[in-house]
Design brief:
Helices cover 68% and strands 0% of the residues. By secondary structure, it is mainly α. It has a single domain, classed as Fido-like domain (Fic-like fold), CATH 1.10.3290.10. The radius of gyration is 18 Å and the shape is globular.
């Protein structure tokens, strides 16, 4: 990355990125301009959270129909159910952490992982030994379970710490870069680094959403980027991430554009929800 005081700002000028920012902004403005948002925005927000969580779980290997997610109450039966439950918990928790995000992003990431994993340490002995990987970056030798990301090199624990500290520094310092650029970098870094032993994808996608909300781009959280990522497909997601991991200007720009398209698709979905609510009200 650049050594300038605001290294993210330069990414906003990469070829194609201003167009992606503009297209995404237009989609977000359309949903916020819908007449239903003036009266029933809380319903749209709730539906966006549910659909976003379902989509994030799908990218995590649990592609359940929306109505199944809506209907179920038991999410501990098997691996897929646990993934869906984790995605729902993370979606619910993320909105409570906005006040902490700008000051202490690493605390927020740890909290999101803790919530995804379903609680805290399994027993006191494990807690004393530091052997439970929940809610903290992985230690040397600890494996990562993340099938979708298996093709990417796994950084060692020291690299993980350094990259997380660098990312936190960027967030706390702030940037003049568009919200899309910051959100894409946060998302891409967390996927590339994989700081936790599991649920890195869920945490990364929730962090992307947090940036979009905290920036003021999507203050009511009605544009679920997770849904857009899932709609573009796992293969496209991994291919775009490979561009980010490459570190080339073209690759990073491709990843930012992919994230912008994800927000556009999330906004389009919520616009459809607004239309459905309007027809119901009529």
């Amino acid at each position: 990355m650049s050594t300038t005081a605001d290294p993210l700002a330069a990414l906003g000028e990469l070829p194609g990125v201003p167009d992606s920012v503009s297209a995404m902004r237009g989609a977000v403005d359309r949903v916020y301009g819908h007449r239903v948002m003036r009266r029933r925005s809380a319903e749209v927000t709730a539906e966006a959270a549910l659909r976003g969580a379902r989509a994030s779980a799908a990218l995590g290997g649990a592609d359940w129909p929306l109505e199944e997610v809506r209907r179920r109450s038991d999410f501990g039966a098997d691996a897929e159910a646990r993934t869906v439950g984790a995605a729902l918990r993370v979606a619910a928790e993320a909105g409570q952490l906005l006040g902490v995000w700008r000051q202490s992003p690493l605390r927020v990431l740890a909290r999101l992982h803790l919530v995804a994993a379903g609680g805290g340490v399994r027993d006191r002995e494990t807690a004393r030994s530091g052997g439970d990987p929940v809610g903290r970056p992985r230690l040397a030798g600890e494996p990562v379970t993340e099938l979708l990301l298996d093709g990417f090199p796994l950084l060692d624990a020291d690299e993980v710490t350094a990259r997380l500290d660098g990312l936190a520094g960027l967030i706390v310092a702030g940037t003049a870069a568009p919200a899309l650029v910051t959100a894409a970098v946060v998302h891409g870094e967390l996927l590339a680094v994989r700081p936790f032993t599991e649920y890195n994808g869920l945490v990364a996608r929730a962090a992307e959403r947090l940036v979009l909300i905290a920036s003021g781009l999507d203050p009511k959280s009605v544009c679920p980027a997770e849904l857009g990522h899932a709609e573009q497909g796992g293969e496209a997601y991994v291919r775009a991430l490979a561009g980010y991991v490459s570190g080339t200007p073209e690759g990073v720009a491709e990843w930012i554009a992919h994230c912008g398209r994800a927000v556009e698709l999330g906004a389009r979905e919520s616009t459809a929800v607004c239309e459905a609510l309007q027809r119901g009200a009529a």
